[in-house]
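Pair request: fold both.
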Amino acid sequence: MPNFRLSISGMSIGLAVALAIWEVAFFFFGWEGFFSLFVKNRLGFQLAWITTIYLSFQLVSIPFAQRAAKGSFVGVVDGIASLLPLLIIVVVIFGKPHLLNTPERWEAAFLLMLATLTDLFGGYAFTIALSRRMVAVGST
């Protein structure tokens, strides 16, 4: 039996891929999401949860993943995985705008684009800030 160990970076990659899969299902196949099975017209509610969970985990996990993946290929893949959901949104907005046939879908696309841009640039800024050496207060 293989020994699987799930790292913070692995979970981050998985979350980015899961968001990308949800985006494809929503925009290309019209699947409104899990909650649409029970309650109709809850897209705003779903997007609030999706973006909150995605951004919270992606940005809070950076300090933990950086220490564990220092100099590792997984750290590079983790950074690149954040591009996947952004790429799908850019393709939908600029390449296939006919998929955005309602105002709600346009709002969803722009909200998801802002969330993925925040993940990408916020993650980059956090990584740069954490990689710099801290100067001890009171030392000469």
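--- second member of the pair ---
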Amino acid sequence: MKRGTWGAILFEGDEAAYAARTRDANFIAASETFERRLADAQAFGRACNGLADRHPELSARSGLTTGQRAGGWAIAGVLIISLLLAPATISLVAVLFFGGYFSIVILMRMCATIAAWAAPPPKPMPRLDDRFLPVLTILVALYREPPDVIAALIKALTALDYPADRLDVKFILEADDDATIEAVRRQSPPANFELIPAPAGEPRTKPKALNLGLDRARGEIVAVFDAEDRPSPTQPREAVAAFQGGPRNLAVVQAPLAIHNGGSSWIARQFEMEYAILFKVWLPFLARLGFPLPLGGTSNYFRRDRLQRAGGWDAWNVTEDADLGMRLARFGGRAAMIASPTWEEAPVQLHHWMTQRTRWMKGHLQTWLVLMRDPVAAAGEMGLVSLASVQFTLGGILLTSIMHGPIVLWLLLGLFTPWVSLAGWHAVLFGAGYGGVIAAALATRKAFPALALASLPLYWPLLSIAMLRAFWEIRTRPHYWAKTPHGEDARKRRKKR
């Protein structure tokens, strides 16, 4: 017998047994490798198409249904024929419709403003004992992030007032994004941080990455943050306390988002005002009424079982947050707001704002179209009143964005040219809308510069441009995710030093 290997020596001549054992060991190793790769491939499939396969009627993957296409063409045809036959009548009906619709939207927002003024300051929640804190999974999708943003993110997450042994942080990175992967590795994150590579493949969206993280989540509660976020250290405990003190069907808790760089540019200031009204006035009002929330894309906390029951995130919707807020309501879940904020960075340059807002408008349109594929079913699931509220919340975002530009142009023509005659109620309605926004901005209890308030009407037509771009993109590249650069403001300040 040749004793050329240690294995042969250990088997003392039984080379057949050694060879069999080696084959078994190789087979087991190969099987384990295959099972691991199979699990990864299945997880990627679920991340991309889990919702679309299980509930295709709730996913934006398939786009417009045949009925929606036929209905759209039918409405367009009727409008064209009616305009040709009775233009004056159609114009009057259109003015009355939009006037009535915007009057309801303005009234709802005024009610929200009054509620915000009347609301007492939030009471501090009692600090929960560490023994009663559940495991919390935090998901952060990262893509093309600068090293300074990564460093600040890790610092902010490690500063959270939550036991490290109950904090499960998942960074989901695109497998071909070498720069971001290297930036994260150089920071040497703590042991409770896990890096999850997302294979390159379509759709390349944030919700796909979040689904991959959800597949590996250990927590009973799952939270989502963005790379530039700086959450208040007390926020996770407040969210957990809200779940423990709320009803069992409380599916999601949204923390308010606040802008820290509003003074960087005019567009950043307008963005800051918009966010303040949304998260301090509008969403708290909807939450108190029990209506579905078009969630923010970050700083939301979910019961994992409710999130999974609703199908996770739709990888094919480019505003997965608003879509998920509607879908959770359809699955019987409620939403609530808490007070601890997350600080975010607003786009400083107009073209970055425009790119981001185009994606938002496109995703809101996707969300509304999915909801309206079968409005009878949607009303049965979320309730008729809730579905009606969505037409003035999510639908209001879309319709006002479409109409802002034309309305401002029409008013200017009426004021400065003889071509358009304005009725008194037109000016009253516009003034009520404008005044309502200023009142809502003041209700946030944040001091905004007078120039920012005065220049609001210049901001609104930009929404119409973004909406037109969204209509074009939903036709040409509906699932394209336009990346918003992070850390731009900090780098700009460093250059000035």
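Observation on the second member. Strands lie at 136-142, 167-174, 193-198, 221-225, 230-231, 250-254, 257-259, 300-303, 334-337, 342-344.
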